[in-house]
Amino acid sequence: MSSAPVAPETEAPKDAEAAVPEKAFSKTSEFIPTAEPVVSRRDRTRTPSDMFEKVVFVNRCAKVVKGGRRFSFSALLVVGDNKGKVGVGFGKAREVAEAIRKATENAKKNLHGYHIGPSTIPHEVTGAFGGGKVLLRPASLGTGLIAGGGVRAVLEAAGVKDILAKSMGSSNPANVVKATVDALSRLRTRSQILETRGKKKPEKGKDA
């Protein structure tokens, strides 16, 4: 029996990749996934409207009933635009996420503007609410935000970058936060103080 002639095997060229035209990869290259931008933790605290949000305190309350215990949560939250506007909100619900949502809505309804400089506050001021008492002092450029707890949250939301703060009363987060807001509401600019005294702002090159 005669066998059919077998065609000799041809060796593949060493530069096989070079022999393939570039157009062969044009369609597949379009479906290569691109790396998503990395989002830092600080950016996650901002809403799409570029509002700063920070949860100061979450409290859990247990109510004893016939069938057992029923838990509820309350959240204290601070909202600001980093340009002098700050709002404090309080929310209660059966779940933490719902309590935070209610606190956020409440805080946005209570936004108020305060007289804050580009970096620090214009003068020393003290605020009080209930048993909480907070002292705020202006600081030089580069000092940083020397504060903690609820005081720091309010000052961050207001956009203060350099300040010295001290809580001298109750450590209750709600009282501390509201005392800080009270201190910001007492701030006055130079022009407002001169107007209260019945004086005009001195012109450049002239004595007051």
What does this structure look like?
This protein has 208 residues and is of the alpha+beta class. The chain has a single domain (45-191), classed as Ribosomal Protein S5, domain 2, CATH 3.30.230. The chain is built from 7 helices and 8 strands, in the order H-H-H-E-E-E-H-E-E-E-E-H-E-H-H. The strands form 2 sheets. A 4-stranded antiparallel beta sheet has the order 1-2-3-4. Helix 5 links the parallel strand 7 and strand 8. Helix 5 (149-158) runs parallel beside helix 6. The longest helix has 14 residues, at 96-109. It starts with 15 loop residues before the first helix and ends in a 12-residue tail after the last helix.
**Strand order across the biggest sheet?**
1-2-3-4
Overall tally of structural domains: 1
CATH architecture label name: 2-Layer Sandwich
- Fraction of residues in β-strands: 25-35%
Q: Which oligomerization state do the chains in this entry correspond to?
A: single chain
Task: Write down the CATH topology.
Answer: Ribosomal Protein S5, domain 2
Which outline best applies?
A: elongated
Radius of gyration: 31 Å
Structural class by helix and strand composition: alpha+beta
Helix content: 25-40%
Query: What is the CATH first-level class name?
Result: Alpha Beta
Number of helices: 7
- How many DSSP E strands? 8
Q: Main beta sheet, described? A: 4 strands, antiparallel
Give the ordered list of helices and strands. HHHEEEHEEEEHEHH
Q: Mean pLDDT across all residues, rounded?
A: 80
Instruction: Pick out the low-confidence regions.
Output: 22-37, 39-48
